[in-house]
Every structure is written in structure tokens, then in C-alpha cells.
Amino acid sequence: MVDAVTPPSNTAKAGRPCTLSPQAQVLVTLEYWREYRTYFHIATDWGVSESTICRTVHRIEEVLMQSGHFRLPGKKRLFKGFGPRPDVVVMDVTETPIERPKRQQRRFYSGKKKQHTLKCQVIMDAHTGEIICTVFGQGRRHDFALFKASGIHFHPETASLQDRGYQGIAQYHANSFIPRKKPKDGELSALEKAYNRELGNQRICVEHVNRRLKIFRILQQRYRNRRRRFGLRCNLIAALYNYELRAM
Q: Exposure string (b/e) for 51-90, b if CB count within 10 Å is 16 or more?
């Protein structure tokens, strides 16, 4: 990350030099994502102004994304084979609470969480644990509706595992597996219960990924920033997770 944000030594830049070194700027950004304290409290610790911390965080985020080293493989990996195509993918949606919007509050109200949220759909490789792509939407949008609007297509030979929120996905991808639903006024058979348990064991990996992403409190606590940068930050944190996974 420091190499990505450090300009070449032969690059001449006009204007006042930055108070913080490149290493400190990266550390400030990680501290903001991880602890999600206010700009004021972080600025007090570093002895700079609140506006300096705000500009630093935004600039580092944009530079990291533009560098190309902190990008996710993307949805083309799932179908067109840009790189090793996964054999099994797991898909799930996690929600982050937000401040109550001033307008169009119903679009962001999640009936499941009983609060206003932003949704992040995570698709990962079940074997390697790598996050392949993410999709974002408002809290009111159903998980399956978010998948249909994303334009994601799986290769016919790729098996996809998901929860009951994706009822009807078999019409779009035949090689998909969801838990068996208990019939009305009936009971699941022993075979169906065993199938649900096995599917749950295979899907638990995506819940662990969601937990590791939400170690960064900016995705766990109530999101106070402008919603248009939410996707950018989610992708960068997911890319950091992939980098740490490869380094293990």
C-alpha cells in the first residue's frame, strides 16, 4: 500500500508538501476503517487538522483503487474464464446500518434488520476463500432482486450455494443449491434435513468472510459518511482481505 501511494522520486509536485509521510497516510486510512472514529479524534492523535485527515483518507482511497493492485477479480471471472474459474461459489448478503436518510427513507429500510441499511452481496470461491466480486444495493431491495439487477452470470459448470433468500435462482442458474423449505402444515424428511445441514456446512465459509470484513468497524457500525463512497470502501477492504489470504 505504501508503494502504491508513494510518488516516484523524479516526480516534481508543486504546492505545499503534505504534513504526513506516505506511511503515516496509509496508517491513518487503515485506522479510520478499522476503528471508525471521527476525523476530529484521529486528527487530535496525529496533531493535524480535521480537514487534513478527511482529505488524506479520500486521497489514499482513490490512489489505491487507481493503482490496480487493490481490485477484486470481478464478475468476468465467474463466466468468461478471465483467470482460473471457480468450481464452487458461495453467495450471501451482509447489511450495514446507516443514518436515517432525509429523502426516500423507504428505499433504505430493511424489514429484516428493522433499520435503514446498505446491502453488500459477496460472492466468493468456496475452495480458496477469495472474494471474487461484490454488488451493492439499498436495504429495501430483496437479496434475489439484487442478484438479478447485478447482471452476474455463473458458468454452467460452476455450482453456486446460497441461502433461502435466493428462491427462484434455479431459473437463472440450474447448478444452484438452496436449503429445502419446510412445507406448510408438514415436516421435512430426514434426507432433506441432512441435505440442509450439509449445505449449511458448505456455506459457513461465507459467514466467516463477512465476519472478517466487519472487523473493520466502518462496515459494522452505523455508516456516517456519504453513501456514494460505501462501495469503494467495501471493495478496498475486500481486496485487503484477498491480499492477506494470499500472504498466509
A: ebbbebbeebbebbbeeeebebbebebbeeeeeebbebbb
pLDDT in tens, the chain (248 residues): 888 888 776 565 666 677 889 999 999 999 999 999 999 999 999 999 999 999 999 999 999 999 888 889 988 888 876 667 899 999 999 999 999 999 999 999 999 899 999 999 999 999 999 999 999 999 999 999 999 999 999 999 999 999 999 999 999 999 999 999 888 888 999 999 999 999 999 999 999 999 999 999 999 999 999 999 999 999 999 999 999 998 87
Q: Are 110 and 96 in contact (CB under 8 A)?
A: no
Give one DSSP letter per residue of the chain, joined into a string. -HHHHSPPTT----SPPPSS-HHHHHHHHHHHHHH---HHHHHHHHTS-HHHHHHHHHHHHHHHHHHSSS----THHHHT-SSSPPSEEEEEEEEEEBPPPSS-HHHHEETTTTEEEEEEEEEEETTT--EEEEEEEETTS-HHHHHHHHT----TT-EEE--GGGTTGGGT-SSEE-PPPPPTT----HHHHHHHHHHHHHHHHHHHHHHHHTTSHHHHS-B-S-GGGHHHHHHHHHHHHHHHHHH-
Q: The dihedral of CA 140, 142, 145, 147: what is its sign? A: positive
Cell numbers 465459509 correspond to: 205
Q: Residue 112 phi/psi, 5° resolution?
A: -75, -45
